[in-house]
Each structure stands twice: as C-alpha cells, then as structure tokens.
Amino acid sequence: MSGTVLVALRGASFAYEDGPPVLSGLDFEVREGRALALLGRNGSGKTTLMRLLSGGLRPDGGELTVEGRPVRYHRKGLTALRTTVQLVVQDPDDQLFAASVGQDVSFGPLNLGLPDAEVRARVAEALAALDIAALADRPTHLLSYGQRKRTAIAGAVAMRPRVLVLDEPTAGLDPDGQERLLATLDGLRENGTTVVMATHDVDLALRWADDAALLTPSGAHTGPAADMLARTDLLTTAGLRLPWGVAVGRLLRARGLLAGGAANPRTPEELAALQVL
Ligand SMILES: Nc1ncnc2c1ncn2[C@@H]1O[C@H](COP(=O)(O)OP(=O)(O)OP(=O)(O)O)[C@@H](O)[C@H]1O
Ligand SMILES: [Mg+2]
C-alpha cells in the first residue's frame, strides 16, 4: 500500500466503562489519498475505532498518532486533531443541533476562531461541495433524512480536514442519494481529502475503496480492496459475504470465460465491458 501514513492507531486498546474490551492491541493506519473502507460485523468496533481516530474517545492503551507524532489529549492537541480528522457519525440527528443548515455548518469553523469572511467562505464551499447551497437557510428539523446526512457531512467538510471519517454514510440513502454521495466523495478526494468509510456493503466497498480493513476478533486486516474482499475466510470471520463482482469473476473463470489474471468486475458497467473469452 502506498501513501504516507497520516493517522494511525498503534497497539490501541479500548473498553467502555465497566464493559469488556472492544479493541485490544489494534494497529490501524490511514494513508494519504487512499480511499479506505472499514468493514466488520455489528458490534465489531467500527464506530469505536472511528471515535478513537477522531479523538472523541481516548485509547486505554497504545496511542493515536498524526504523521507519526502521538496526539496529546489537551485542548490544543485536540484542536489540532480536529483540523486533521473529522468524524461524521451515522445518525445525522446525533450531529446536527443548530436551527438552520448554514448555522450548523458554520459552527466548527466559528469555534476555531476564524475571521467571519473565512467562515463564510468555508461554509459556502462546504454547502457547494455537498450540493445543498439552496438549503442554507432551511431549518434543520425540516430536512429530509438524506438532506440531514449531507448537512452533517458539510459540517465536517467546512473544517477542511485532511481525513474525513464517515460512519456508514450511505445507510438510509436511496440509490440516487448513494450515487450522489459517492460523486461528492470523489470530488473531495480530487481536492486532496482522504476519506475513510465504515460500511456493511461489500459491493460498495469493492467499487469505491482502494483499501479495505476487515475488523475481526483478531484485529484489523488491511490491504487492497480487491484482494481483501476476495478473502472468503476473512469475510466469513468478519460476518460479511463475498461481493457479487468477485463471485461473478470466479464463476466466469471456472467456466473458462475469463482469463486467469483478469480483474473481477466491480460494477454492472465493468461486467458488460468484460472481454469474455
Ligand atoms: N457508549 C457505549 N457504552 C458501552 N458500550 C458500548 C458503547 N458503544 C458501543 N458499545 C459496545 O462496544 C462494542 C462495539 O460497538 P461499536 O458501536 O463500535 O460497533 P460497530 O462495529 O460500529 O457496530 P454496528 O455495525 O452495529 O454499527 C459493542 O459491543 C457495543 O455494545
Ligand atoms: Mg457502528
């Protein structure tokens, strides 16, 4: 895997108060520019891991590093972390609280103490990136679920983080909403933001991610998405199924219809374009 390690958990352990360990001795890296999908069964610790990455939780053991330097959990250290890593939680209602979309998105930049003009520029940029500029004055409680999701993501984008961490961003979106979100994420990535996404959707992960991390009881197993998502053993341990593209590729190969070294199709379009023997 290429790319500098921007943020990493090293030997990280975490348990909620009075609870059993959720993560123990976990190693996890986010590499600059690599789209990373985080997968694992319900309760495997994806959300916990993401909260550790963004500093909302602090590991009981091990450490969180940004560009190799351990994060300090005092006010200044956490502010520095927030401008590097931004988490968008799964349920937008846990994130949104201001009266209007524009106010909500401006909260983070205002809190950084940025000048008004800079705050306005960032809010405009984030609303445009999420295609919700027209909703700026709309009361947040009147938004649809998909609009609330986009508003929550805009709030994180307005912080101009280097790493955007999204907890199940496509859950609850309709097919068109999912496509628009992926296009939005492509745009953010083109502008240099590294995106990490937790998802249960193996087909989406295969199509979208450069790398995939499978969270299992033995730790996080990370590698190129096309390889990791073809590892039946790991997928089973992680409570996941094989992506259909991998299954179709295998079937075509077994029937002698696809060359041994050819890549598996990741989308219906790629399947249609396959050079079947
Ligand atoms: N605030 C909390 N207090 C106590 N235990 C918690 C808390 N949040 C999560 N847990 C426990 O930690 C474990 C990991 O939960 P987590 O939410 O990180 O899993 P997840 O992989 O995100 O699951 P899902 O796919 O359902 O979102 C679970 O056993 C859960 O019950
Ligand atoms: Mg979760």
From TrEMBL:
SMART domains: AAA (SM00382). Residues 7-242 form the ABC transporter domain. This is ABC transporter ATP-binding protein. It is a peripheral membrane protein. Probably part of an ABC transporter complex. Responsible for energy coupling to the transport system. It comes from the Bacteria. Belongs to the ABC transporter superfamily. SUPFAM superfamilies: P-loop containing nucleoside triphosphate hydrolases (SSF52540). GO terms for molecular function: ATP binding. It comes from Streptomyces pimonensis. It is found in: Cell membrane. Pfam families: ABC_tran (PF00005). Keywords: ATP-binding, Cell membrane, Membrane, Nucleotide-binding, Translocase, Transport.
